Design the sequence.
């Protein structure tokens, strides 16, 4: 229904724009033409059956060439997502996303089939809504809006992958308040982390500390629940300012486990003056009681850090557009550290060294065929782990 | 084995197990106030009964001594048995603690042999394992199951056995023998002595005690995949780690001249290769990875009892390839006869790729002598019965 309203709005806007700019002698003809177009769209609108169930989705195809080791080159249908939304009435709707990663999911393949979202949203009033089920955690700029048409670069940025483990979802209850002054408040209680899943022998925790212990509502241990809150402000056109906070204990009542209270917070901003798109995120995670946890796992390559953090700044410019085409180069600098600090162990010589921050330059472009289909290319350069340097090509869609 | 035959065998095995379980069903009677069920109490009596051996001198407890963590309490490379107690087996008598979580022998998805009881995994359960020594000619050496059952019927606890398994149980020797092994299994499962988790390391995992600096350094070296890498086969993580992954490895342990069987130069114990049902020459020479719990109580180590010092055993791991001359005899031409307890055609089976074996003569061992001491200090924290 919303999609069918768009041509009407566009026609009306075009009409008003023409009225302001066209010479008087052409105006009558153009008004007639637009009126006919308006009637045609209205007719199409009335002829189409309306539905309370809407199918959507997005997908990402990616090719990566690793500069230093061509044997690592990959081409991958990284994500294929089908989204189904059903409106039960004008106050209650179901929102779902079903995702297949890496094209094939079987016992012998790396692919995964995941429910990314599955929640009921009920509108209490014009400002307040409730969500219950499996929902995306409000954190950073990308986690809740992660479709390939919504971000620059073939891959999601490292900060919102390693520090904020996008696409990060938990099961629980959430209240959402949207106010006329542009403030959006979100807060709730959800499932949290399970640190017994931490595999000190693998590198998973070094890639994303919270990604290694979040539970995605898959038989999630729920002795220790999480609390979270986020505020975003869109009071000025083109400007978004916000922040989020998430806290959970990770012991889940298991014997021998210290409490492992983990906190993740972020501040973020996005400003889109004219053709420019500027954004920045800073995110930091902390974990308590890691010394007691790590002491039993000393010697393993990946112990739990007491702090991990990262930030990025990104600038994009819609350099050219024609019709539905749009070309926008961008550049992004990131600093990410998944092991910025460790609590001291006994003896102190066993305490792991804090990792150096990885600094990543990414430059490339998004070329939109239309608002729903995007071609992407970028170059990523890593200061420390240069083996990760690569050129990416991507194709994405969202509808 | 063809899939159809295997299926039939599995079904037959399952049927036999079900029939036995039904016949021995009263084993599931409630536990007594002391904590053991009647079947487990019977199992304890059988475990300690020397009358069930040909010599009349040997019981399960003879080679699996509680004070030695249910392993041997002497430094013989293999225990003596037989009718006159003068025959020696070929393998060290291992601790039988912490086996309740083990499974029957199988190959995992990658073809890795896993599980099973005894050094070569040939027994599929604790009960199956318990039934072996009674009939082994170099152990308890009874001539038949019927002979064992006849002794059982004359034991002081025979009435209790009948009470648990039925009045007519001794009339079917096969069934009575099976029930006897199930009672032994029940005893090992129920009695906390077989899985006390009472070591200093357990207290450390529970957060009630700290490791000394040397012990903590030893744990780090034990876990470190670039140093000891011991945890790769002896996992130390979890709230109750067993320190074994129940897999198998070919270590190339030196031949033990103290083992009587090795007087025959043609004799080689091939581990998995000694099993008639395994036709995987790449596994010949592989023995089960034992739990390291209570390893400091063992007076001989490895399957052939080649080492009598824990420090020597740890040092062997890290110097086997850097200083082979320390561990293996020299040939007349002066060359080191590495892996001398395996026929040369199976030398390629020995693990030389993983840390700490992946080194060459002249290179530094993965652990220094001081680091070996730290690992040994840590291993001593795995001894049950820790008190502050």
Sequence:
């Amino acid at each position: 229904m919303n999609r069918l309203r768009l041509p009407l709005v566009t026609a009306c806007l075009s009409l008003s724009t023409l009225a302001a700019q066209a010479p008087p002698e052409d105006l009558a003809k153009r008004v007639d033409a637009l009126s006919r177009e308006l009637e045609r769209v209205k007719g199409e609108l009335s002829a189409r059956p309306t539905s309370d169930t809407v199918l959507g989705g997005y997908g990402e195809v990616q090719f990566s060439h690793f500069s230093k080791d061509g044997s690592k080159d990959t081409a991958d249908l990284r994500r294929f997502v089908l989204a189904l939304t059903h409106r039960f009435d004008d106050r209650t709707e179901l929102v779902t996303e079903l995702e297949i990663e890496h094209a094939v999911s079987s016992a012998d393949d790396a692919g995964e089939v995941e429910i990314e979202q599955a929640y009921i949203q009920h509108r209490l009033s014009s400002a307040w809504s409730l969500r219950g089920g499996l929902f995306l955690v409000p954190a950073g700029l990308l986690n809740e809006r992660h479709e390939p048409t919504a971000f620059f670069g073939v891959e999601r940025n490292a900060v919102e992958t390693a520090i904020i483990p996008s696409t990060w979802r938990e099961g629980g209850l959430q209240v959402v308040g949207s106010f006329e002054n542009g403030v959006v408040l979100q807060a709730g209680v959800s499932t949290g982390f399970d640190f017994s899943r931490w595999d000190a022998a693998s590198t998973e925790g070094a890639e994303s500390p919270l990604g290694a212990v979040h539970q995605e509502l898959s038989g999630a241990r729920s002795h220790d629940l999480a609390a979270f809150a986020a505020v975003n402000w869109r009071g000025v056109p083109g400007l978004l300012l916000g922040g989020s906070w998430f806290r959970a204990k990770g012991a889940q009542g298991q014997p021998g486990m210290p409490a492992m209270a983990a906190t993740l917070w972020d501040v973020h901003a996005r400003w889109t003056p004219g053709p420019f798109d500027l954004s920045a995120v800073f995110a930091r995670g902390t974990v308590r009681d890691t010394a007691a946890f790590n002491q039993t796992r000393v010697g393993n390559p990946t112990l739990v850090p007491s702090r991990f953090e990262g930030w990025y700044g990104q600038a994009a410019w819609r350099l050219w557009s024609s019709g539905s085409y749009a070309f926008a180069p961008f550049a992004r600098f990131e600093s990410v550290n998944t092991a910025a600090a460790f609590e001291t162990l006994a003896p102190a010589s066993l305490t792991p060294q804090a990792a150096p921050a990885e600094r990543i330059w990414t430059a490339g472009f998004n070329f939109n065929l239309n608002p729903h289909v995007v071609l992407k290319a970028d170059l990523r350069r890593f200061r420390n782990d240069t083996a990760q340097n690569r050129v990416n090509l991507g194709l994405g869609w969202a509808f | 084995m063809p899939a159809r035959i295997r299926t039939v065998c599995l079904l037959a095995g399952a049927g036999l197990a079900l029939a036995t379980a039904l016949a021995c069903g009263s084993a599931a009677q409630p536990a007594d106030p002391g904590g053991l069920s009647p079947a487990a109490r019977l199992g304890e009596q059988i475990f300690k009964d020397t009358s069930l051996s040909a010599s009349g001198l040997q019981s399960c407890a003879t080679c699996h001594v509680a004070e030695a963590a249910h392993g041997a309490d002497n430094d013989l490379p293999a225990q003596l048995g037989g009718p006159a107690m003068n025959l020696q087996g070929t393998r060290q008598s291992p601790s039988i603690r912490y086996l309740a979580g083990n499974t029957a022998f199988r190959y995992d998805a990658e073809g890795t042999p896993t599980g099973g009881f005894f050094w070569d995994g040939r027994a599929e359960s604790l009960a199956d394992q318990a039934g072996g020594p009674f009939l082994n000619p170099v152990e308890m050496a009874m001539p038949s199951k019927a002979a064992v059952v006849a002794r059982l019927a004359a034991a002081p606890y025979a009435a209790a056995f009948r009470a648990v398994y039925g009045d007519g149980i001794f009339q079917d020797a096969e069934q009575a023998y099976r029930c006897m092994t199930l009672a032994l299994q029940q005893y090992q499962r129920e009695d906390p002595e077989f899985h006390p988790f009472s070591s200093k390391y357990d207290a450390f995992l529970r957060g009630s005690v700290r490791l000394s600096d040397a012990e903590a350094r030893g744990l780090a070296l034990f876990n470190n995949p670039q140093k000891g890498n011991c945890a790769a086969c002896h996992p130390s993580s979890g709230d109750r780690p067993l320190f074994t992954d129940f897999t198998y490895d070919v270590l190339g342990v030196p031949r033990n001249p103290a083992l009587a069987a090795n007087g025959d130069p043609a004799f080689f114990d091939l581990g998995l290769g000694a099993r008639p049902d395994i036709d995987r020459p790449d596994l010949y020479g592989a023995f089960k990875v034992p739990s390291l719990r209570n390893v400091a109580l063992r007076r001989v180590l490895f399957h052939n009892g080649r080492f009598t010092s824990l420090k020597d055993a740890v040092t062997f791991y890290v110097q086997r390839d850097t200083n082979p001359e320390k561990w293996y005899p020299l040939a007349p031409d002066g060359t080191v006869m590495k892996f001398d307890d395996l026929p040369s055609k199976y030398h390629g089976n020995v693990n030389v790729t993983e840390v700490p074996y992946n080194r060459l003569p002249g290179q530094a061992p993965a652990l220094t002598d001081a680091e070996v001491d730290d690992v040994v200090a840590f291993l001593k924290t795995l001894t049950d019965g820790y008190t502050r």
Observations:
- Chain B touches chain A through 23 residues (CB under 8 Å).
- The domain at 200-382 of chain B is CATH 1.10.760.10 (Cytochrome Bc1 Complex; Chain D, domain 2).
- Confidence is low (pLDDT under 50) at residues 1-11 of chain B.
- The beta strands of chain B are 80-81, 87-88, 106-107, 113-114, 248-249, 287-288.
